Amino acid sequence: MMELLQRGYVTSVAATAGCTTEVIQNDNWGIDVQFIRPPVVATRFETMLWAQLKSTTQITPDPQKEFFSYQFTKRQYFDHMAKVRPSIKAILIVMTVPQNQSTWTEVSHSGLLTKRSCYWVDLEGQTSEADKPTVRVPTKNLFDASALTEVLDKIDRGESLRE
Fold this sequence. Notes:
Blueprint: H1 2-16, E1 20-23, E2 33-37, E3 47-56, E4 67-71, H2 75-82, E5 89-96, E6 105-108, E7 111-114, E8 118-121, E9 134-138, H3 145-157
């Protein structure tokens, strides 16, 4: 169920940013979703970004701290995110959710509130010798429409996704 919640979250963010999402059915390369932003001019290319989605009830990020740690359950998931890609870039999106499923969302007349948030990190080029690598996810990297737009803009300009 956490996977469904996270897909809904990232799809909502993508729609707000003017992108579509494509769920990758066969998780052969550690990629769960693809974001596609249409070109501003029809003769230009679309901008695409791949993402691996991970959810956890074990972490409650403290926004006063620079990062929280996320441990992969399998080495290959880290390896897929760390490889250097010459074309389509990829990010890890970690969603932290409350343990009690019935508290994941709240609905009112003003809208739907999803409890907790997604955070993103670019792991391209990182290394680890661990069987279950642990990565630092910056708490400033909330995954929202402006963050997705900024990442896609950097891809368009050929810039690194890391600061």
